[in-house]
Amino acid sequence: MVIDDVDNDNRYDIITLDSSSQKIDILYDDGNRTFTIHTISLPTILWLRPVSTADVNNDNKRDIVILDSEFKKILIYLNNGNCKFTEHMNYSIGTDPLFLTTEDLNADGYSDIIIGYRSAEGVNVQLNDGNGMFPGEAVFYRTVCPSHFVTIADLNGDHTLDIIALCPSVHKIVILFNNW
Ligand SMILES: [Ca+2]
Ligand SMILES: [Ca+2]
Ligand SMILES: [Ca+2]
Ligand SMILES: [Ca+2]
After folding, report:
1. How far is the CA of 106 from the centre of ligand 3 (A)?
2. What is the tens place of the pLDDT at every residue in 8-49?
3. Which SUPFAM superfamilies does UniProt cross-reference here (predicted)?
4. Nearest ligand to the C-alpha of residue 14?
5. What is the arithmetic mean of pLDDT over 70-80?
6. C-alpha of residue 135 to centroid of ligand 4, in Å
7. How many helices and strands (H and E) does the chain possess?
8. Which residues keep their CB under 5 angstroms from ion ligand 3?
9. What residues make up the domain containing 158?
10. pLDDT, tens digit, for every residue of 97-139?
11. Contact between 3 and 60 (Cβ < 8 Å)
């Protein structure tokens, strides 16, 4: 589940994935303690689908990025405004992805995708080309343990976003300071 303002009305909305019925529900906050639900149907039966929101194509509308860990794909749905989303692209990623989040790690103004893995000992960063596409090879950062959960924050106050990875199998948190 993600909380974000996807219709730019300054009220937080709720985005949830429903694995069993293959859909995303977006609950738009009406501002009077009620929500209007809009649904995006998903194409395939997915498994363990972390969801994130980011404006990947820089049009000032928050888009939805999903990890399909079963079929090892990233799905991106672009926000058209008027509560509608269109599938923008989906592309395959390697090995055994488990977690996904979005932030602009190289500070070029475009949201990038950060992926954690079930067994691979590191995280991958997929850079945004500025058009909401992610064509380049991912940049792999070793964490020396499988990073099942990843979050992003500037931990050392140098105004660059750092990567914090949780490795449950070895009971560790790994911090990767940003050198971009
Ligand atoms: Ca809203
Ligand atoms: Ca957008
Ligand atoms: Ca970027
Ligand atoms: Ca930093």
Report:
1. 5
2. 999 999 999 887 778 899 999 999 999 999 999 887 666 667
3. Integrin alpha N-terminal domain
4. 1
5. 91
6. 26
7. 0, 15
8. 104, 106, 108, 110, 112, 128
9. 2-176
10. 999 999 999 999 999 999 999 999 999 999 999 989 998 889 9
11. no
